Amino acid sequence: MTELPKAYEPSFVEEKWQTRWMSEGCFHANPQSPKPAYSIVIPPPNVTGVLHMGHVLNNTIQDILARRARQEGKEVLWLPGTDHAGIATQARVEKELARENPPRTRYDLGREAFVARVWEWKEKHGGIIIKQLKKLGCSCDWERERFTMDDVYAPEVARVFTELFREGLIYRGRRMVNWDPVLRTALSDEEVIMTPTKSKLYTIRYKLADGSGQLLVATTRPETIMADVAVAVNPKDPRFSHLIGRTVIRPLCEAEIPIIADDHVEIDFGTGALKITPAHDRTDFEVGMKNNLEIIDILTPDGRINCPGCPELHGMDRFAARDKSIELIDAKGLLEKVEEYENNVGISQRSDVPIEPRLSMQWFLKYPCVKEAAEAVASGDIVFRPAHWAKTYAHWLEGIQDWCISRQLWWGHRIPVWYRKDKAAELRGATKLDEADAEAGDIYVGVTPPADPENWVQDEDALDTWFSSWLWPFSTMDEACRAKFYPTSDLVTGPDIIFFWVARMIMAGYRFAGGKPFSNVFFTSIVRDLKGRKMSKSLGNSPDPLDLIAKYGADGLRFGLMRIAPTGTDVKFDEKQIEEGKNFANKLYNAARFRMMQGEAVTDPAPKFTAVHIDILAKLKDLHKSVADALAKYEFNTYTQALYSFFWNEYCSLFLEAVKNDLREGSDPAVRNATLFTMDTVLRHYLALLAPIMPHITEELWESLGFASRHGGTPLMTTELPCPDALLSGLDDSAVSKARATASALYDAANRARNLKAEYNLATNRKVRFILKPALPVDADLATRLALLAGSQSVTCDAAFDAPKGTPTAITPLGELFLPLEGLVDVEAERNRAAKELEKISKEIAKSQVKLSNPAFVDRAPAAVVDQERSRLNDWLTRKTQLESMLAALS
RNA sequence: GCGAAGUUAGCUCAGUGGUAGAGCACAUCCUUCACACGGAUGGGGUCAUAAGUUCGAAUCUUAUACUUCGUACCA
């Protein structure tokens, strides 16, 4: 036993327990269980993903909740899985193809072969993140792992599409969408990030067609001039009212275009005249529709100019064309001026390039159950934590727009719509398709292909990935599971996907699963680096959690991260904090090792509990409560901090130091028994309280301390939480508080004794003798413990002690403590020291006296506060007298 | 523009009206038989700024500054 290594080595232990938990089915949820249900669905990570700090934070929290729920006697389902992540996964495989020799594109392979290739890639590399989650110790029911495109899940997506289509909520239409020219697909509004960008504002002269003058127009996008179909001015703008209805010459790809009036134009901005380009700008499109203007599209799907009428620009990339078009205009003498300008540009979240507003045929969804979703959060039926996210959520729902759900991708759920072969071309070009066309027999919408597939062609597009993930809380469950575990209890996720995922799941829950998908949503902090930047691969500021696990252990990583994870704000990641987690694991291991060295506890003779024993058991009971409170409020850092300070400060630094003598040879066997018994009790309860956050080491120590065998050999993770009520059951409250007061006085006195030693520059290991003039009854046991804690040879109680002149003294709750130091005290230095302290203390006394002589304070402040102030003043006055007599003796 | 969150020790963060806290870092001391991934002691904060409410404000109110996030947009 004593040959256990001095330092805790996590890697072996962690792997051992992960294997054992799984082989014993500890994570498996039983829908038939009579126990109350607790359930959580994992936010499915991208199947292409690798674990990052955000995942660690997120999943550690979920694991704490799940493990604690098991200890509380609940049947727990933590349902894992991965997301097919359409764009990310497709891009990954396309990149692989591009690296081949010769390089290939998906078009070279064709749709079927390409999709097969992605599946192949997924089988080979897709499981990485799942393996990583297992290394972190996540107690998911791995037998129920789902994938958003597996055989069970995919038909659900098609079924939901079909149902919403029949209901008229899904339609195909020609609309302005966000177009990503690199990925060549439409994106939803949520996938576009408006980014302030430095650009240039060009002012260009548009000549009046009749040659009578010119109109100045300001634009940031001169490359789209060829698609201008009008110039608009505000109808209330007196500068231009005479021009309305006349025409100007479009400066590139010259043609006559009208000057129109539209109140969308701001009089004060730019020149007050706005070029109207309906094909390439959202608001221009609306102005165009209102005024029945033509739509001229001069961009290709990959963002190049498509305008044979302007050969200098035709075929050119959109950004190159911007510069070139200005050159052309300048050459024509039509460039008035160029200004530096900062505007907001929509950037694709996926490919990081500016998106193009583009008119195209896409599938849209009018969201179902918006009202129910808004109401659920507003009424508190679904609770958001931190609460302020409810406002963001409500705001989004108020301004909600139809969701563009089609993507021009191959990897994903293909849209379950088929067109009649003989009318396919016509149908695809139609500006609107809905349930009426299905009824007419022109299109077929269903979960399975039509019975006569040779007569139909399927829609080419795939669905937005989120259109499958929004079904995650229920489509992952079979009927039995749903009956037991839906709605789920908690959802733990990042606030960055509140719209993408959380809001949509709530709507889907009401529409398809008969009610809310979860009762609580906990939004985690976003993990940033020390400079406050988001962690990302490109910045290289994102540590690999597996490296951290190798260095500090999964338990250390979990504990360290939870200790700094605040609620409601971002967390700045500092590896030092993770090191703390590891150090803590080591401390725990050594405290357990210390216990193991002492051998079995015996109950004969009956244990003799002293104040320090009762004190630590009472603190343990308090810890039960603070842990329960913190978890009930989802305050994970409070939870972690309470566990940390109890163990390190209260148990190790105070209690263990105070009882060490009890374990040495020649000690009273009854006291020794009390100490061993107390250590066992504390460790047994404490390991259980700590287990949710540090599951591996607690499980290991639970076994090696022999607690497992006492519980029928079951692992800690499936053992119910020990009941705090059993602690101190034989004692009444007043006996407990008396013991606590004594222990607290002892620890306080020990501190002051150590202070004295340090003040007189006595080395820590120097054995000194203290003399105590007791103010309370101090028995031999207490005096011995004080001596031990103070690092001294002895503390002698002597009520009649007459201190020699200048003896260093401290006032403690147990009485006056003297440190006789014959020949060691420098009288001069001692006088200076005392004078300095006297000065300091006099200031405090003056302050306190002013406060206490203020009638407003004495009358209005609570009595306890006033009493406290008075007793503080008394202590100072006593010390003052002492110092004064010391000074008198020294001079 | 609008909205939200934040600003406390060198660093990372606690602290919701009653003597400013923890861990790390720093300084000095200690390898004493659980732990040097440890122990002991110490230095270090006008709690962003300003005004107000109060006997008393890090805490409540208002304004300002800065940081981060969300959202809306004017070419």
Report on the architecture of this protein.
The chain is α/β, with parallel strands linked by helices and 891 residues long. The chain is 44% helix and 16% strand. The chain has 29 helices and 30 strands. The longest helix is centred in the last third of the chain and has 28 residues. The mean pLDDT is 89. The chain binds one RNA strand of 75 nucleotides through strand 8, strand 12, helix 11, strand 26 and helix 19.
Which percent bin holds the helix content?
40-55%
* Average of pLDDT: 89
Uncertain runs are none
Q: Please report the total strand number as a whole number.
A: 30
Structural class: alpha/beta
Number of helices: 29
Largest sheet: 5 strands, antiparallel
First-residue to last-residue Cα separation:
60 Å
Kindly provide the radius of gyration, computed on alpha-carbon positions and rounded to a whole number of angstroms. 37 Å
- Write down the overall geometry: elongated
Content of β-strand: 15-25%
Oligomeric state of this protein: single chain
